[in-house]
């Protein structure tokens, strides 16, 4: 594994189109497709309305997202695999395929079928979930970085680090490429160096695709519950997953059933996986009973230990146009925060009751450049509970941002580092010329406190301006809901393989590690089944 680094010029991945290379037999030919040609993975993708009323598989994976896609690709090399995704496909949706469409994708939401599903935590922080084949990796900023060494020592898994590296490399052969740094990202890189965040030069990657005959990807499939059966007719018998029930877009029910020795694997994310366990009767007995849900297995920590890394920062309007750029450069500080940057072109709207400004006849656009910090960890934990027994309705979530003072301290350190960067020579060009030769930034939204040495002022800024960086995780934590092999404790033939199992966010961005996790668990399952067959 690679050594911890203080500054990364890391890798940039390109949304779903490239990500799905991990589940396509001829992935490497995609870049040569002409625009009118459909990508070849669509050959094994079907709409749920075309799925039979009942069918049988070795592995049923719920959630075609960041972990679910590579997991399905891996298992399909030897087994018959069904991948169920509640959303559609990204092909043909330009906003999902370009950096320029990033903000539009996050804002264009509806209740049941947009690629982005919006939700708001009880604290009032707006957030989103991916509802598209590719999951949140299809709607995010596409940043790729491996987890640091601490991640493997702090999780309750007996990691085979050689297999971990092989799994990362499998992902990287398909999707990773070097970003082209332009005006804003280059300036931030230089500003980080000036602000004392030491450099690490280049890449650190020391830190076989799907079988189309064995895999079926079903879109617009809303899984409502896991089918459970007793392993033996006695009071002490264990429950075992037998399949899933899902509905298509017109409301018809379908049953996907396991073959002998098969498994259901939840990869529906930190919101979807605990929600589906609860709706299937796996969770705290008193809570399930209060909803009238028959209790299949009492598992008290389902939906608990839910985390979201706070994001805080500033945005400025530069005196000249900038290109669209998402996360390409990250400063890894030694004080509990990551520093990241983005620039976006957004529409300008005149005030509703303006006296002097008329509504422009053609759209006007402004460039906004952002510096932000992501709090490592975090230490503050929240929870999830049902809002409805309809799986399409978002659960109620509370992340308890900054309830642990450790997170406040880390945020103060991170926002102070942003202040240091703003004082560097690299940022001078982004100031406006004012009166008497003075140059100043033009802030959009709150600026940092003037007295950044005042801890209480900085802590108040953190609490007052908190938002999400969309790296929420937990809810099916290792050691409490799943064991070290990601099996649901107390229930056979059922696993959870996604970010809901993690108590910490791995590295600067969890995307790479979740892709690795899907590949890794798939390899472990095949290895274990091979050894079991040899013993049998």
From TrEMBL:
SUPFAM superfamilies for this protein: FAD-linked reductases, C-terminal domain, FAD/NAD(P)-binding domain
Disulfide bonds: 411-462
Keyword Flavoprotein: yes
Gene Ontology MF annotations: flavin adenine dinucleotide binding; oxidoreductase activity, acting on CH-OH group of donors
Annotated signal sequence range: 1-27
Family matches, as Gene3D superfamilies: 3.30.410.40, FAD/NAD(P)-binding domain
Keyword annotations of the record: Disulfide bond, FAD, Flavoprotein, Signal
InterPro entries named among the record's database cross-references: FAD/NAD-bd_sf (IPR036188), GMC_Oxidoreductase-Related (IPR051871), GMC_OxRdtase (IPR012132), GMC_OxRdtase_N (IPR000172), GMC_OxRtase_C (IPR007867)
Top-level taxon in the UniProt lineage: Eukaryota
Residue ranges constituting the Glucose-methanol-choline oxidoreductase N-terminal domain according to the UniProt record: 269-283
Cofactors that this protein relies on: FAD
Pfam families: GMC_oxred_C, GMC_oxred_N
Binding site for FAD: 223, 470-471, 499, 510-511
Keyword hit for Isomerase: no
Family the UniProt entry places it in: Belongs to the GMC oxidoreductase family.
Name of the protein in its database record: Glucose-methanol-choline oxidoreductase N-terminal domain-containing protein
The species this protein was found in: Malus domestica (Apple)
């Amino acid at each position: 594994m690679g050594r911890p680094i203080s500054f990364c010029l890391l890798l940039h991945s390109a949304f779903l189109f490239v990500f799905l290379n991990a589940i396509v037999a001829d992935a490497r030919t995609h870049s040569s497709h002409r625009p009118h040609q459909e990508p070849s993975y669509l050959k094994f993708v079907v709409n749920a309305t075309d799925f039979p009323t009942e069918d049988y598989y070795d592995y049923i994976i719920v959630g075609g997202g960041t972990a679910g896609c590579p997991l399905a690709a891996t298992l399909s090399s030897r087994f018959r695999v069904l991948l169920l995704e509640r959303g559609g496909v990204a092909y043909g949706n330009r906003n999902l395929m370009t950096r320029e469409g990033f903000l539009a994708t996050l804002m264009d939401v509806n209740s049941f079928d947009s690629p982005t599903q919006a939700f708001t935590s009880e604290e009032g922080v707006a957030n989103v979930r991916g509802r598209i084949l590719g999951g949140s990796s299809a709607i995010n900023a596409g940043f790729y970085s491996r987890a640091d060494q601490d991640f493997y020592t702090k999780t309750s898994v007996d990691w085979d680090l050689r297999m971990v590296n092989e799994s990362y490399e499998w992902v990287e052969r398909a999707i990773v490429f070097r970003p082209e740094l332009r005006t804003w990202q280059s300036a931030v890189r230089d500003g980080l160096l000036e602000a004392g965040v030491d450099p690490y030069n280049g890449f650190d990657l020391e830190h076989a695709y799907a079988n189309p005959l064995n895999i079926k990807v079903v879109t617009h499939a809303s899984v409502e519950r896991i089918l459970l059966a007793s392993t033996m007719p006695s009071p002490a018998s264990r429950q075992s997953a037998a399949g899933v029930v899902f509905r298509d877009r017109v409301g018809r029910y379908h049953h996907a059933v396991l073959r002998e020795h098969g498994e259901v694997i939840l990869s529906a994310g930190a919101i979807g996986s605990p929600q589906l366990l609860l709706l299937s009767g796996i969770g705290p007995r008193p809570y399930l009973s209060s909803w009238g849900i028959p209790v299949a297995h009492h598992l008290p920590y389902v939906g608990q230990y839910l985390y979201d890394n706070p994001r805080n920062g500033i945005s400025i309007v530069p005196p000249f146009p900038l290109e669209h750029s998402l996360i390409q450069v990250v400063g890894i500080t030694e004080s509990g925060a990551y520093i990241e940057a983005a620039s976006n072109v957004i529409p300008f709207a005149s005030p509703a009751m303006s006296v002097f400004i008329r509504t422009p006849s053609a759209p006007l656009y402004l460039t906004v450049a952002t510096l932000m910090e992501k709090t490592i960890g975090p230490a503050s934990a929240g929870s999830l509970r049902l809002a409805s027994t309809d799986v399409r309705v978002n659960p109620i979530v509370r992340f308890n941002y900054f309830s642990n003072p450790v997170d406040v301290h880390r945020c103060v350190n991170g926002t102070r580092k942003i202040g240091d960067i703003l004082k560097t020579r690299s940022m001078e060009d982004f100031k406006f010329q004012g009166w008497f030769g003075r140059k100043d930034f033009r802030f959009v939204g709150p600026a940092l406190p003037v007295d950044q040495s005042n801890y209480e002022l900085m802590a108040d800024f953190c609490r007052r301006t908190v938002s999400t960086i969309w790296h929420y995780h937990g809810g099916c934590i290792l050691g409490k809901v799943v064991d070290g092999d990601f099996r649901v404790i107390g229930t056979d033939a059922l696993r959870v393989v996604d970010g809901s199992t993690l108590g910490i966010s791995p590295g600067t961005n969890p995307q790479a590690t979740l892709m690795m996790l899907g590949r890794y668990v798939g390899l472990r399952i095949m290895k274990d089944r091979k050894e079991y067959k040899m013993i049998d």
